[in-house]
């Protein structure tokens, strides 16, 4: 048995365009002024907007200092 090779007279296909490159812009979407205002007015709770870790650290420090100063440090922090 001989295999037959057929050639097609179909026109060449159009070149395929490469997919467009996706550009991802990483930027801080937080407002610096709002971060400062929240931290000043709400202390450690306002700091959570800026930094979760910073908020937790300040909350622990503020709680411990309030414990040792019988609550007087809450006014300062």
Q: How much beta, percentage-wise?
A: under 5%
Number of helices in the DSSP assignment: 4
* Residue share in helix: 40-55%
Nearest-angstrom radius of gyration?
32 Å
| Number of DSSP-assigned strands | 0
The average pLDDT value, as a whole number, equals 81
Q: What does the main sheet amount to?
A: none
Q: What structural category characterises the helix and strand content?
A: mainly alpha
Approximate shape: rod-shaped
Distance between the ends? 93 Å
Please mark out the parts with pLDDT under 50 across 5 or more consecutive residues, or reply none.
Answer: none
Which H/E pattern describes the elements? HHHH
Report on this structure.
- The chain has about 80 residues and is an all-alpha fold.
- It has a domain at about 50-75.
- Helices cover about 50% and strands about 0% of the residues.
- The protein has 4 helices and no strands.
- The chain has helices at about 30-40, 45-50, 50-70, 75.
- Helix 1 runs antiparallel to helix 2 and helix 2 (about 45-50) packs antiparallel against helix 3 (about 50-70).
- The longest helix has 17 residues, at about 50-70.
- The mean pLDDT is about 80.
């Amino acid at each position: 048995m001989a295999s037959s090779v057929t050639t097609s007279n179909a026109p060449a296909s159009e070149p395929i365009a490469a997919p467009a490159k996706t550009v991802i812009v990483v930027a801080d979407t937080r407002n610096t002024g709002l971060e400062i205002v929240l931290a000043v007015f709400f202390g450690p709770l306002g700091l959570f907007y800026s930094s979760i870790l910073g908020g937790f650290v300040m909350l622990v420090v503020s709680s411990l200092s309030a414990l040792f100063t019988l609550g007087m440090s809450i006014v300062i922090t």
